[in-house]
Protein backbone atom coordinates (compact mmCIF):
# COMPACT_ATOMS: atom_id res chain seq x y z
CA UNK A 1 0.00 0.00 0.00
CA UNK A 2 2.78 2.45 0.94
CA UNK A 3 4.57 1.90 -2.39
CA UNK A 4 1.34 2.39 -4.32
CA UNK A 5 0.54 5.51 -2.29
CA UNK A 6 3.90 6.98 -3.17
CA UNK A 7 3.33 6.26 -6.87
CA UNK A 8 -0.22 7.64 -6.72
CA UNK A 9 1.01 10.88 -5.15
CA UNK A 10 2.40 11.98 -8.52
CA UNK A 11 0.52 9.77 -10.99
CA UNK A 12 -0.98 11.56 -14.00
CA UNK A 13 -4.12 9.40 -14.35
CA UNK A 14 -7.06 11.81 -14.01
CA UNK A 15 -8.66 10.12 -10.94
CA UNK A 16 -5.40 10.62 -9.01
CA UNK A 17 -5.17 14.24 -10.13
CA UNK A 18 -8.68 14.78 -8.79
CA UNK A 19 -7.95 12.88 -5.59
CA UNK A 20 -4.93 15.06 -4.84
CA UNK A 21 -7.03 18.22 -5.24
CA UNK A 22 -9.59 16.75 -2.86
CA UNK A 23 -6.89 15.82 -0.34
CA UNK A 24 -5.84 19.47 -0.18
CA UNK A 25 -9.48 20.57 0.11
CA UNK A 26 -10.22 18.42 3.18
CA UNK A 27 -6.92 19.07 4.97
CA UNK A 28 -8.74 21.26 7.52
CA UNK A 29 -11.33 18.59 8.41
CA UNK A 30 -10.92 16.25 11.39
CA UNK A 31 -9.21 13.05 10.30
CA UNK A 32 -12.13 10.88 11.42
CA UNK A 33 -14.80 12.96 9.62
CA UNK A 34 -15.93 11.24 6.39
CA UNK A 35 -15.02 12.88 3.10
CA UNK A 36 -18.32 13.23 1.26
CA UNK A 37 -18.70 12.53 -2.46
CA UNK A 38 -22.00 13.32 -4.16
CA UNK A 39 -23.66 12.64 -7.50
CA UNK A 40 -26.95 14.15 -8.61
CA UNK A 41 -29.84 12.67 -10.58
CA UNK A 42 -32.91 14.41 -11.95
CA UNK A 43 -35.69 11.78 -12.06
CA UNK A 44 -37.81 13.67 -14.60
CA UNK A 45 -36.75 11.00 -17.10
CA UNK A 46 -35.51 7.44 -17.01
CA UNK A 47 -31.89 6.96 -15.89
CA UNK A 48 -29.44 6.85 -18.78
CA UNK A 49 -25.78 6.12 -19.32
CA UNK A 50 -24.77 9.68 -18.48
CA UNK A 51 -26.17 9.12 -14.98
CA UNK A 52 -24.21 5.91 -14.65
CA UNK A 53 -21.10 7.62 -15.96
CA UNK A 54 -21.18 10.27 -13.27
CA UNK A 55 -21.42 7.68 -10.50
CA UNK A 56 -18.75 5.48 -12.10
CA UNK A 57 -16.30 8.34 -12.52
CA UNK A 58 -16.97 9.69 -9.04
CA UNK A 59 -16.38 6.19 -7.63
CA UNK A 60 -13.06 6.04 -9.49
CA UNK A 61 -11.97 9.32 -7.86
CA UNK A 62 -13.14 8.00 -4.51
CA UNK A 63 -11.06 4.84 -4.91
CA UNK A 64 -8.01 6.88 -5.96
CA UNK A 65 -8.52 9.08 -2.89
CA UNK A 66 -8.66 6.03 -0.63
CA UNK A 67 -5.25 4.98 -1.92
CA UNK A 68 -3.84 8.39 -1.04
CA UNK A 69 -5.55 8.77 2.34
CA UNK A 70 -6.85 6.71 5.25
CA UNK A 71 -9.74 9.12 5.81
CA UNK A 72 -13.22 7.52 5.76
CA UNK A 73 -15.40 8.34 2.74
CA UNK A 74 -19.09 8.32 1.81
CA UNK A 75 -20.83 8.58 -1.56
CA UNK A 76 -24.34 10.00 -1.76
CA UNK A 77 -26.46 9.46 -4.87
CA UNK A 78 -28.89 12.37 -4.58
CA UNK A 79 -32.21 12.46 -6.43
CA UNK A 80 -33.77 15.87 -7.13
CA UNK A 81 -37.20 14.32 -6.88
CA UNK A 82 -38.96 17.33 -5.36
CA UNK A 83 -38.60 19.25 -8.62
CA UNK A 84 -41.85 20.08 -10.37
CA UNK A 85 -42.63 18.15 -13.56
CA UNK A 86 -42.05 20.79 -16.23
CA UNK A 87 -42.75 18.72 -19.33
CA UNK A 88 -43.72 15.17 -20.24
CA UNK A 89 -40.73 13.17 -21.57
CA UNK A 90 -41.29 11.82 -25.09
CA UNK A 91 -40.33 8.25 -24.24
CA UNK A 92 -42.94 7.56 -21.52
CA UNK A 93 -46.36 5.85 -21.61
CA UNK A 94 -49.60 7.54 -20.43
CA UNK A 95 -48.64 10.95 -21.78
CA UNK A 96 -52.10 12.46 -21.25
CA UNK A 97 -52.19 11.36 -17.62
CA UNK A 98 -48.75 12.85 -16.94
CA UNK A 99 -49.75 16.12 -18.59
CA UNK A 100 -52.48 16.52 -15.96
CA UNK A 101 -49.83 16.62 -13.22
CA UNK A 102 -47.46 19.21 -14.67
CA UNK A 103 -46.07 21.43 -11.94
CA UNK A 104 -46.31 18.86 -9.16
CA UNK A 105 -43.23 17.47 -7.38
CA UNK A 106 -42.04 14.32 -9.13
CA UNK A 107 -42.81 12.35 -5.96
CA UNK A 108 -46.46 13.48 -6.28
CA UNK A 109 -46.83 12.53 -9.98
CA UNK A 110 -48.42 9.08 -10.51
CA UNK A 111 -46.15 6.42 -11.96
CA UNK A 112 -46.98 6.08 -15.70
CA UNK A 113 -45.75 2.48 -15.56
CA UNK A 114 -48.11 1.65 -12.70
CA UNK A 115 -45.48 -0.13 -10.61
CA UNK A 116 -44.47 2.39 -7.94
CA UNK A 117 -45.88 4.99 -5.60
CA UNK A 118 -44.93 7.84 -7.95
CA UNK A 119 -43.03 8.68 -11.11
CA UNK A 120 -40.00 9.66 -9.03
CA UNK A 121 -40.19 6.47 -6.96
CA UNK A 122 -40.18 4.47 -10.20
CA UNK A 123 -37.13 6.29 -11.58
CA UNK A 124 -35.34 6.25 -8.24
CA UNK A 125 -35.82 2.49 -8.11
CA UNK A 126 -34.44 2.18 -11.63
CA UNK A 127 -31.44 4.26 -10.64
CA UNK A 128 -30.69 2.19 -7.56
CA UNK A 129 -31.22 -1.09 -9.42
CA UNK A 130 -28.53 -0.43 -11.96
CA UNK A 131 -26.15 1.15 -9.46
CA UNK A 132 -26.55 -2.00 -7.37
CA UNK A 133 -25.99 -4.15 -10.44
CA UNK A 134 -22.59 -2.55 -10.90
CA UNK A 135 -21.69 -2.98 -7.25
CA UNK A 136 -21.33 0.70 -6.40
CA UNK A 137 -21.05 1.52 -2.71
CA UNK A 138 -23.38 4.47 -2.13
CA UNK A 139 -26.17 5.92 0.00
CA UNK A 140 -29.37 7.03 -1.71
CA UNK A 141 -30.85 10.39 -0.71
CA UNK A 142 -34.24 11.72 -1.81
CA UNK A 143 -34.71 15.51 -1.98
CA UNK A 144 -38.35 15.12 -0.95
CA UNK A 145 -37.40 13.18 2.16
CA UNK A 146 -34.58 15.60 3.01
CA UNK A 147 -36.89 18.62 2.77
CA UNK A 148 -39.84 17.04 4.58
CA UNK A 149 -37.79 15.39 7.34
CA UNK A 150 -36.23 18.67 8.40
CA UNK A 151 -32.70 17.67 7.40
CA UNK A 152 -32.39 20.86 5.36
CA UNK A 153 -34.29 23.14 7.73
CA UNK A 154 -31.30 24.78 9.40
CA UNK A 155 -29.66 25.60 6.08
CA UNK A 156 -32.95 26.77 4.57
CA UNK A 157 -33.23 29.26 7.41
CA UNK A 158 -29.67 30.34 6.64
CA UNK A 159 -30.70 30.95 3.03
CA UNK A 160 -33.62 33.01 4.31
CA UNK A 161 -31.31 35.01 6.56
CA UNK A 162 -29.04 35.70 3.57
CA UNK A 163 -31.93 36.24 1.15
CA UNK A 164 -30.64 39.55 -0.22
CA UNK A 165 -27.11 38.22 -0.69
CA UNK A 166 -28.45 35.25 -2.68
CA UNK A 167 -30.63 37.55 -4.77
CA UNK A 168 -27.64 39.82 -5.48
CA UNK A 169 -25.72 36.81 -6.82
CA UNK A 170 -28.51 35.38 -8.97
CA UNK A 171 -30.38 38.39 -10.36
CA UNK A 172 -27.56 39.74 -12.59
CA UNK A 173 -27.53 36.40 -14.44
CA UNK A 174 -31.24 36.59 -15.35
CA UNK A 175 -33.17 38.38 -18.06
CA UNK A 176 -35.34 41.37 -17.19
CA UNK A 177 -38.60 39.44 -17.22
CA UNK A 178 -37.25 36.64 -15.04
CA UNK A 179 -35.66 39.09 -12.58
CA UNK A 180 -39.06 40.64 -11.92
CA UNK A 181 -40.50 37.40 -10.48
CA UNK A 182 -37.44 35.49 -9.26
CA UNK A 183 -37.11 34.15 -5.75
CA UNK A 184 -34.78 31.37 -4.56
CA UNK A 185 -37.77 29.91 -2.67
CA UNK A 186 -40.47 27.97 -4.51
CA UNK A 187 -43.50 27.46 -2.24
CA UNK A 188 -45.50 24.26 -2.54
CA UNK A 189 -49.20 25.14 -2.88
CA UNK A 190 -51.14 23.46 -0.03
CA UNK A 191 -54.26 23.27 -2.24
CA UNK A 192 -52.91 21.98 -5.57
CA UNK A 193 -49.59 20.50 -4.49
CA UNK A 194 -47.87 22.41 -7.29
CA UNK A 195 -44.37 23.82 -6.95
CA UNK A 196 -45.05 27.51 -7.58
CA UNK A 197 -42.83 30.01 -9.36
CA UNK A 198 -44.39 33.13 -7.91
CA UNK A 199 -43.11 36.47 -6.62
CA UNK A 200 -42.10 36.60 -2.95
CA UNK A 201 -43.30 39.90 -1.57
CA UNK A 202 -42.13 39.61 2.02
CA UNK A 203 -39.31 37.83 3.85
CA UNK A 204 -39.45 37.23 7.58
CA UNK A 205 -36.16 35.66 8.61
CA UNK A 206 -36.99 35.80 12.32
CA UNK A 207 -40.22 33.85 11.82
CA UNK A 208 -38.72 31.60 9.14
CA UNK A 209 -41.45 32.45 6.64
CA UNK A 210 -42.04 34.10 3.30
CA UNK A 211 -45.15 35.74 1.89
CA UNK A 212 -45.95 35.09 -1.74
CA UNK A 213 -48.70 36.21 -4.06
CA UNK A 214 -50.67 33.67 -6.06
CA UNK A 215 -51.91 34.28 -9.59
CA UNK A 216 -55.37 35.07 -8.19
CA UNK A 217 -53.83 37.88 -6.12
CA UNK A 218 -54.16 36.17 -2.75
CA UNK A 219 -51.21 36.58 -0.39
CA UNK A 220 -50.04 33.47 1.45
CA UNK A 221 -47.52 33.21 4.29
CA UNK A 222 -45.69 29.90 4.55
CA UNK A 223 -42.70 28.48 6.44
CA UNK A 224 -39.62 27.77 4.32
CA UNK A 225 -38.98 24.62 6.37
CA UNK A 226 -40.60 21.20 6.65
CA UNK A 227 -41.08 20.71 2.92
CA UNK A 228 -43.39 23.73 2.55
CA UNK A 229 -40.92 25.27 0.10
CA UNK A 230 -38.06 24.08 -2.06
CA UNK A 231 -35.29 26.10 -3.61
CA UNK A 232 -34.61 27.01 -7.22
CA UNK A 233 -32.06 24.52 -8.39
CA UNK A 234 -28.87 26.64 -8.35
CA UNK A 235 -29.65 27.87 -4.85
CA UNK A 236 -30.77 24.32 -4.02
CA UNK A 237 -27.42 22.92 -5.14
CA UNK A 238 -25.53 25.38 -2.95
CA UNK A 239 -27.85 24.72 0.01
CA UNK A 240 -27.33 20.96 -0.36
CA UNK A 241 -23.54 21.29 -0.48
CA UNK A 242 -23.70 23.37 2.68
CA UNK A 243 -26.25 21.26 4.56
CA UNK A 244 -24.58 17.93 3.81
CA UNK A 245 -20.97 19.12 3.77
CA UNK A 246 -20.26 17.85 0.26
CA UNK A 247 -16.54 17.74 -0.53
CA UNK A 248 -16.58 16.47 -4.13
CA UNK A 249 -19.07 16.61 -6.99
CA UNK A 250 -18.48 16.53 -10.73
CA UNK A 251 -20.80 17.89 -13.40
CA UNK A 252 -21.17 18.10 -17.15
CA UNK A 253 -19.50 20.82 -19.16
CA UNK A 254 -22.90 22.41 -19.80
CA UNK A 255 -23.15 23.23 -16.08
CA UNK A 256 -19.88 25.13 -15.66
CA UNK A 257 -21.61 28.48 -15.15
CA UNK A 258 -24.14 26.89 -12.79
CA UNK A 259 -21.32 25.40 -10.71
CA UNK A 260 -19.70 28.82 -10.51
CA UNK A 261 -22.95 30.49 -9.43
CA UNK A 262 -23.82 27.81 -6.87
CA UNK A 263 -20.30 28.05 -5.45
CA UNK A 264 -20.78 31.79 -4.86
CA UNK A 265 -24.09 31.12 -3.12
CA UNK A 266 -22.53 28.41 -0.93
CA UNK A 267 -19.85 30.84 0.21
CA UNK A 268 -22.51 33.47 0.96
CA UNK A 269 -24.19 30.89 3.22
CA UNK A 270 -20.94 30.29 5.09
CA UNK A 271 -20.29 26.99 3.35
CA UNK A 272 -17.43 25.79 1.15
CA UNK A 273 -18.21 24.57 -2.37
CA UNK A 274 -16.85 21.13 -3.19
CA UNK A 275 -13.94 20.23 -5.42
CA UNK A 276 -15.34 19.82 -8.90
CA UNK A 277 -14.59 18.26 -12.25
CA UNK A 278 -16.32 19.14 -15.50
CA UNK A 279 -16.70 16.26 -17.96
CA UNK A 280 -17.73 16.49 -21.59
CA UNK A 281 -21.13 15.31 -22.75
CA UNK A 282 -22.02 12.17 -24.62
CA UNK A 283 -23.44 12.51 -28.11
CA UNK A 284 -25.89 10.25 -29.94
CA UNK A 285 -25.46 8.86 -33.46
CA UNK A 286 -26.49 12.23 -34.93
CA UNK A 287 -24.04 14.21 -32.81
CA UNK A 288 -26.74 15.54 -30.49
CA UNK A 289 -26.43 15.71 -26.70
CA UNK A 290 -27.94 12.66 -25.02
CA UNK A 291 -31.08 13.60 -23.12
CA UNK A 292 -33.05 11.47 -20.69
CA UNK A 293 -36.25 13.21 -21.77
CA UNK A 294 -35.67 12.42 -25.45
CA UNK A 295 -34.43 8.91 -24.77
CA UNK A 296 -31.76 9.16 -27.48
CA UNK A 297 -28.46 7.34 -27.18
CA UNK A 298 -28.12 4.04 -25.33
CA UNK A 299 -29.64 2.93 -22.08
CA UNK A 300 -27.63 0.99 -19.53
CA UNK A 301 -29.86 -2.02 -20.13
CA UNK A 302 -29.17 -1.88 -23.87
CA UNK A 303 -25.41 -1.76 -23.39
CA UNK A 304 -25.59 -4.76 -21.07
CA UNK A 305 -27.40 -6.78 -23.74
CA UNK A 306 -24.27 -6.61 -25.85
CA UNK A 307 -21.35 -6.18 -23.49
CA UNK A 308 -20.12 -6.40 -19.93
CA UNK A 309 -20.43 -3.74 -17.22
CA UNK A 310 -16.65 -3.45 -17.24
CA UNK A 311 -16.56 -2.41 -20.89
CA UNK A 312 -19.05 0.34 -20.11
CA UNK A 313 -16.94 1.48 -17.15
CA UNK A 314 -13.92 1.63 -19.47
CA UNK A 315 -15.83 3.90 -21.84
CA UNK A 316 -16.51 6.20 -18.90
CA UNK A 317 -12.87 6.19 -17.77
CA UNK A 318 -11.35 7.15 -21.09
CA UNK A 319 -11.02 10.83 -22.03
CA UNK A 320 -13.72 12.23 -19.70
CA UNK A 321 -13.05 15.75 -20.95
CA UNK A 322 -13.57 14.82 -24.59
CA UNK A 323 -17.04 14.75 -26.18
CA UNK A 324 -17.64 11.18 -27.32
CA UNK A 325 -20.17 9.56 -29.57
CA UNK A 326 -22.12 7.05 -27.52
CA UNK A 327 -23.99 4.71 -29.80
CA UNK A 328 -24.21 0.98 -30.40
CA UNK A 329 -21.32 0.88 -32.86
CA UNK A 330 -18.81 1.89 -30.16
CA UNK A 331 -19.47 -1.27 -28.14
CA UNK A 332 -17.24 -3.84 -29.92
CA UNK A 333 -14.21 -1.56 -29.70
CA UNK A 334 -14.89 -0.83 -26.03
CA UNK A 335 -15.08 -4.55 -25.26
CA UNK A 336 -11.83 -5.37 -27.05
CA UNK A 337 -10.00 -2.44 -25.49
CA UNK A 338 -11.10 -3.63 -22.05
CA UNK A 339 -9.78 -7.13 -22.81
CA UNK A 340 -6.46 -5.68 -24.01
CA UNK A 341 -6.00 -3.62 -20.85
CA UNK A 342 -6.95 -6.63 -18.71
CA UNK A 343 -4.38 -8.92 -20.34
CA UNK A 344 -1.63 -6.31 -20.05
CA UNK A 345 -2.19 -5.64 -16.35
CA UNK A 346 -0.38 -8.63 -14.84
CA UNK A 347 2.96 -7.82 -16.48
CA UNK A 348 2.94 -4.08 -15.88
CA UNK A 349 4.97 -2.04 -13.42
CA UNK A 350 3.23 -0.36 -10.47
CA UNK A 351 3.21 2.96 -12.30
CA UNK A 352 1.68 1.34 -15.38
CA UNK A 353 -0.89 -0.56 -13.33
CA UNK A 354 -2.18 2.61 -11.64
CA UNK A 355 -2.63 4.14 -15.08
CA UNK A 356 -4.32 1.06 -16.50
CA UNK A 357 -8.12 1.61 -16.64
CA UNK A 358 -8.82 -1.85 -15.21
CA UNK A 359 -7.19 -0.81 -11.92
CA UNK A 360 -9.80 1.94 -11.61
CA UNK A 361 -12.65 -0.21 -12.92
CA UNK A 362 -11.97 -3.06 -10.49
CA UNK A 363 -10.91 -1.04 -7.42
CA UNK A 364 -7.30 -2.12 -7.78
CA UNK A 365 -7.88 -5.87 -8.11
CA UNK A 366 -8.82 -6.79 -11.69
CA UNK A 367 -9.47 -10.45 -12.45
CA UNK A 368 -6.62 -12.51 -13.86
CA UNK A 369 -7.74 -14.33 -16.96
CA UNK A 370 -6.30 -14.99 -20.38
CA UNK A 371 -8.87 -14.10 -23.04
CA UNK A 372 -7.55 -15.69 -26.25
CA UNK A 373 -10.43 -14.58 -28.48
CA UNK A 374 -11.41 -10.97 -29.12
CA UNK A 375 -15.00 -9.78 -29.31
CA UNK A 376 -14.50 -8.76 -32.95
CA UNK A 377 -13.29 -12.26 -33.74
CA UNK A 378 -16.31 -13.78 -32.02
CA UNK A 379 -18.61 -11.56 -34.09
CA UNK A 380 -17.00 -12.83 -37.28
CA UNK A 381 -17.24 -16.40 -36.06
CA UNK A 382 -20.96 -16.02 -35.43
CA UNK A 383 -21.30 -14.33 -38.81
CA UNK A 384 -19.54 -17.06 -40.78
CA UNK A 385 -20.91 -20.05 -38.90
CA UNK A 386 -24.44 -18.67 -38.45
CA UNK A 387 -24.29 -20.60 -35.16
CA UNK A 388 -26.39 -19.38 -32.23
CA UNK A 389 -25.72 -22.25 -29.89
CA UNK A 390 -23.17 -21.50 -27.20
CA UNK A 391 -21.84 -25.07 -27.16
CA UNK A 392 -21.23 -25.03 -30.92
CA UNK A 393 -19.38 -21.75 -30.73
CA UNK A 394 -17.25 -23.10 -27.90
CA UNK A 395 -16.24 -25.99 -30.18
CA UNK A 396 -14.85 -23.43 -32.61
CA UNK A 397 -13.13 -21.52 -29.79
CA UNK A 398 -11.42 -24.65 -28.47
CA UNK A 399 -10.10 -25.41 -31.93
CA UNK A 400 -8.31 -22.07 -31.74
CA UNK A 401 -7.48 -22.17 -28.00
CA UNK A 402 -7.52 -25.87 -26.92
CA UNK A 403 -6.96 -25.12 -23.23
CA UNK A 404 -9.85 -22.66 -22.95
CA UNK A 405 -13.06 -23.79 -21.22
CA UNK A 406 -16.18 -21.97 -20.01
CA UNK A 407 -15.14 -22.74 -16.43
CA UNK A 408 -11.53 -21.53 -16.75
CA UNK A 409 -12.42 -18.56 -18.95
CA UNK A 410 -15.63 -17.04 -17.54
CA UNK A 411 -15.00 -13.67 -19.20
CA UNK A 412 -14.73 -15.31 -22.61
CA UNK A 413 -17.77 -17.45 -21.85
CA UNK A 414 -19.71 -14.27 -21.06
CA UNK A 415 -18.71 -12.77 -24.40
CA UNK A 416 -20.31 -15.52 -26.48
CA UNK A 417 -23.98 -14.61 -25.90
CA UNK A 418 -23.06 -10.93 -26.16
CA UNK A 419 -21.61 -11.59 -29.61
CA UNK A 420 -24.73 -13.48 -30.68
CA UNK A 421 -26.98 -10.63 -29.56
CA UNK A 422 -24.86 -7.96 -31.21
CA UNK A 423 -24.62 -9.92 -34.46
CA UNK A 424 -28.38 -10.49 -34.62
CA UNK A 425 -29.29 -6.87 -33.90
CA UNK A 426 -26.60 -4.91 -35.76
CA UNK A 427 -24.33 -6.99 -37.98
CA UNK A 428 -26.79 -9.33 -39.64
CA UNK A 429 -29.26 -6.63 -40.78
CA UNK A 430 -26.45 -4.68 -42.45
CA UNK A 431 -24.54 -7.57 -44.05
CA UNK A 432 -24.04 -6.97 -47.75
CA UNK A 433 -22.10 -9.49 -49.79
CA UNK A 434 -20.55 -8.66 -53.13
CA UNK A 435 -19.07 -10.67 -55.97
CA UNK A 436 -15.27 -10.69 -56.25
CA UNK A 437 -13.49 -8.81 -59.00
CA UNK A 438 -11.40 -10.84 -61.47
CA UNK A 439 -8.27 -10.01 -59.49
CA UNK A 440 -9.93 -10.95 -56.19
CA UNK A 441 -11.31 -14.17 -57.68
CA UNK A 442 -7.81 -15.14 -58.71
CA UNK A 443 -6.62 -14.40 -55.21
CA UNK A 444 -9.35 -16.46 -53.58
CA UNK A 445 -8.59 -19.44 -55.84
CA UNK A 446 -4.90 -19.14 -54.93
CA UNK A 447 -5.80 -18.86 -51.25
CA UNK A 448 -7.77 -22.11 -51.41
CA UNK A 449 -4.68 -23.93 -52.69
CA UNK A 450 -2.45 -22.41 -50.03
CA UNK A 451 -4.90 -23.27 -47.24
CA UNK A 452 -5.13 -26.86 -48.52
CA UNK A 453 -1.32 -27.05 -48.47
CA UNK A 454 -1.22 -25.77 -44.89
CA UNK A 455 -3.81 -28.34 -43.85
CA UNK A 456 -1.80 -31.16 -45.41
CA UNK A 457 1.30 -29.96 -43.59
CA UNK A 458 -0.61 -29.72 -40.31
CA UNK A 459 0.34 -26.03 -40.01
CA UNK A 460 -2.86 -24.16 -39.22
CA UNK A 461 -1.72 -21.52 -36.74
CA UNK A 462 -3.16 -18.03 -37.10
CA UNK A 463 0.28 -16.60 -37.92
CA UNK A 464 1.00 -19.18 -40.62
CA UNK A 465 -2.39 -18.56 -42.23
CA UNK A 466 -1.94 -14.77 -42.03
CA UNK A 467 1.44 -15.09 -43.74
CA UNK A 468 -0.08 -17.01 -46.67
CA UNK A 469 -2.95 -14.53 -47.02
CA UNK A 470 -0.44 -11.69 -47.07
CA UNK A 471 1.68 -13.51 -49.68
CA UNK A 472 -1.31 -13.94 -51.99
CA UNK A 473 -2.02 -10.23 -51.84
CA UNK A 474 1.61 -9.40 -52.61
CA UNK A 475 1.73 -11.78 -55.57
CA UNK A 476 -1.44 -10.32 -57.06
CA UNK A 477 0.14 -6.87 -56.80
CA UNK A 478 -2.71 -5.13 -55.05
CA UNK A 479 -1.90 -1.42 -55.05
CA UNK A 480 -2.79 -1.35 -51.35
CA UNK A 481 -2.81 -4.61 -49.40
CA UNK A 482 -5.64 -3.23 -47.31
CA UNK A 483 -7.83 -3.59 -50.38
CA UNK A 484 -7.09 -7.33 -50.45
CA UNK A 485 -7.98 -7.84 -46.81
CA UNK A 486 -11.07 -5.67 -47.14
CA UNK A 487 -12.14 -7.75 -50.13
CA UNK A 488 -11.94 -10.92 -48.01
CA UNK A 489 -14.39 -9.46 -45.52
CA UNK A 490 -16.73 -7.97 -48.09
CA UNK A 491 -16.86 -11.08 -50.29
CA UNK A 492 -16.82 -13.77 -47.59
CA UNK A 493 -18.53 -12.11 -44.62
CA UNK A 494 -20.56 -9.28 -46.12
CA UNK A 495 -18.89 -6.57 -44.06
CA UNK A 496 -16.18 -3.99 -44.61
CA UNK A 497 -13.72 -4.89 -41.86
CA UNK A 498 -12.83 -7.23 -39.05
CA UNK A 499 -9.92 -8.58 -36.98
CA UNK A 500 -6.87 -10.31 -38.47
CA UNK A 501 -8.18 -12.69 -41.11
CA UNK A 502 -5.60 -15.32 -40.18
CA UNK A 503 -7.06 -15.46 -36.68
CA UNK A 504 -10.55 -15.76 -38.12
CA UNK A 505 -9.54 -18.73 -40.31
CA UNK A 506 -7.77 -20.38 -37.37
CA UNK A 507 -10.88 -20.22 -35.17
CA UNK A 508 -13.43 -20.93 -37.89
CA UNK A 509 -11.36 -23.77 -39.35
CA UNK A 510 -9.37 -24.20 -42.54
CA UNK A 511 -11.81 -26.70 -44.16
CA UNK A 512 -14.75 -24.46 -43.24
CA UNK A 513 -13.02 -21.41 -44.69
CA UNK A 514 -12.23 -23.25 -47.91
CA UNK A 515 -15.91 -24.21 -48.17
CA UNK A 516 -16.89 -20.59 -47.52
CA UNK A 517 -14.60 -19.37 -50.32
CA UNK A 518 -16.11 -21.93 -52.72
CA UNK A 519 -19.59 -20.60 -51.88
CA UNK A 520 -18.46 -17.04 -52.54
CA UNK A 521 -16.91 -17.99 -55.88
CA UNK A 522 -20.13 -19.77 -56.85
CA UNK A 523 -22.22 -16.73 -55.94
CA UNK A 524 -24.11 -18.56 -53.20
CA UNK A 525 -23.35 -15.89 -50.59
CA UNK A 526 -24.96 -13.13 -52.64
CA UNK A 527 -28.36 -14.36 -51.45
CA UNK A 528 -28.64 -12.71 -48.05
CA UNK A 529 -29.38 -15.19 -45.28
CA UNK A 530 -32.70 -14.31 -43.66
How do the strands and helices of this protein lay out in sequence?
Elements: H1 2-8, H2 14-25, E1 35-41, H3 49-68, E2 73-79, H4 95-99, H5 119-133, E3 139-142, H6 143-149, H7 153-161, H8 163-170, H9 176-181, E4 185-187, E5 200-204, E6 209-213, E7 219-223, E8 229-231, H10 233-244, E9 251-252, H11 256-268, E10 278-279, E11 282-283, H12 300-306, H13 309-317, E12 324-325, H14 331-345, H15 350-355, H16 357-361, H17 375-385, H18 390-400, H19 410-427, H20 438-457, H21 462-475, H22 481-492, H23 501-508, H24 510-522
Helix pairs in contact: 2-3, 7-10, 8-11, 10-11, 13-14, 17-19, 17-23, 18-23, 20-21, 20-24, 21-23
